[in-house]
């Protein structure tokens, strides 16, 4: 005998109850800002913008510049790469961390806290995998600087990544 496994399309209709609350995501309300079907074309002329003194004193996320140290900065064939260290003195959720920033706007591709395991970011979701996966090695695609692997290995040292 095999145990019965229901797939979503096989669940009898009387097992599901729909209310207006759990269907609210189906609302057809227009977005807050309509998309402009005719965007302005960008000028091919180079332009310079002046930064106010207030914007030069802090990073975009509000961390004072004197509390952020650039450890590595270079341009590769594919990305603009920076590794930053945020001081433990900063009044910010990333205090005490090292960040791998890629691309022009500085997208965070990895975060590593030297004094704690969990990051309070989506990398922590990877820590839920070892208990639900069958035994064996865990493969990660898009390894970055190893944030997900670090969380897994510190919480489950027996796992092979």
Automatic annotation (TrEMBL):
Region (Disordered): 36-59
Domain of life per record: Eukaryota
Feature: compositional bias, Polar residues: 45-57
Protein name: Uncharacterized protein
